Task: structure prediction
Amino acid sequence: DTGVSQDPRHKITKRGQNVTFRCDPISEHNRLYWYRQTLGQGPEFLTYFQNEAQLEKSRLLSDRFSAERPKGSFSTLEIQRTEQGDSAMYLCASSRTQSGAGELFFGEGSRLTVL
Amino acid sequence: AQSVTQLDSHVSVSEGTPVLLRCNYSSSYSPSLFWYVQHPNKGLQLLLKYTSAATLVKGINGFEAEFKKSETSFHLTKPSAHMSDAAEYFCVVSRYNAGNMLTFGGGTRLMVKP
Result:
């Protein structure tokens, strides 16, 4: 396994700008998840794909957020018109469909700072 | 609905002494429970999991946890702390066989003094 990779690792942007994060899962994993982690808190579920289908979305995912996984491989998470409250670590994870519940493999995250 | 409460935000121990990180859960369903560890600038890593088999679960690096349904607890222990154990630990609950919906606790930062 080469692991889950995320890009960029750090992003500083001004309020109102759009940002996009990319996640490359472990190659044979068909499930891909996005979580958000704010300072001093545990990660919170945002959304989840099985192959290219987005199967669940948290109510945390406002209409300024959009996630895609067009070919069932890498995924992007775009935040439009960023707000200071969007500052957080965005975590991507992947798993096999048949793996035990909760056995997610996480990337190192993309840290967003909105000024 | 499900939730997790980690009872201590910070725990400090001396190297070689036991570690106890406390976790209580709430779940409307038969829960699956996990502990994940997050070292600085590293991704979250699964330490161990409980999925309705043995109530005493052994994980990596000498950690273990015991599922106590009557107390709705899933405390993490290790007999002897090592400096490399210093990290953030998360207790996690999911609905049994619903691995996509993980609910994380707030985390416990473990500090190990030499």
